[in-house]
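for the writeup, i need someone to sanity check this before i put it in the appendix. the sequnce is what the collaborator sent (i think, or maybe the updated version? ugh). structure was predicted straight from it, no edits. if anything looks off just tell me and ill rerun, i have time this weekend
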Amino acid sequence: MSATAFQSSLCISSQKPSFSPTNSQEPNTHLSSKPKSLLHKHPLYSSAHHNLSLQIKEKILCLEIMGIDSGKALSLNPSLHTTSLDSLNSIISFLQSKGIHQKDFPRIFGMCPKILTSNIKTDLNPVFSFLSQDLNVPENNYRKVINKCPRLLTSSVRDQLKPALFYLQRLGFKDLEALAYQDPVLLVSSVEHTLIPKLKFLGNMGFSTAEAKSMVLRCPGLFTFSIENNYKPKFAYFKEEMNGDLEELKEFPQFFAFSLEKRIKPRHIELMSIYDPPDLDLEWKWNSFRQKLSARIAFFYQQRSKEITRPARVRASGARLRVENDWHSQCQQSGRLLDH
């Protein structure tokens, strides 16, 4: 299949571009205005790069027209230098046959350019079989799962996806739909180097194995947080500055999902500055983190209610705290960062 046909099938919706026989470095007049603006600035059209082979130039052109950063792709996946345009076209056609849209390619290939040099039979096909047979994902939902986690397409079913699924199921992850559509990143996480160490670190904090398992089941995102950049600094602040205890984190493991500098510290400092009465100190010692926050916000509202035109409704629900009304908006605008 020629480079021209490849461009036509992938990059141009209706008109077929062709390279000038006299100067292949000239941009095609049939290309849309957006691709042309990208290509005019690309090394393909620079005389300083006249030594690039025609095949590489055509490959760069096709990648750029699809919206893919060719420089980044070639850098992260050197195999692209030698792969043929026919091979690239086969990959694209295969993914489209699985329901992936052309508009999805920039993000998918931008995150995982290795996909462009995958083997359809041994690399890609097994992944879609895994989605169908092991996660019960219907064919019309392949796109949703792949867009959520493109790294699935670069993961070995035998060495990565099935071992991760087995480990997660043993921990208690029974909802396959949630794993497929909400937390597929767990399936591409190394059991040995990511999942097990994170669970062990929760144990090192003082939680029992059963408590740690319960926490990750309630908040799967705990498996994705960095020990050095997330757990350690947030846990230190929680213990030293907030005088918290493990029971609070057991009830509210989502604490680790909030930014320490942008959410936890500002919220804690603000609430401490507006709440001082001693009568609730004892209550705070045994209330959960969210109950503490609810009590402090409620007190803040009581003190400021005369300044608000419409009453606020503050409630603590089983899953999260909500503050709803004009008062919420005023707090946001004033930078109080009390929204949850």
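Confidence is low (pLDDT under 50) at residues 1-40, 277-289, 306-340. Strands lie at 313-316, 321-324.
thx in advance!!
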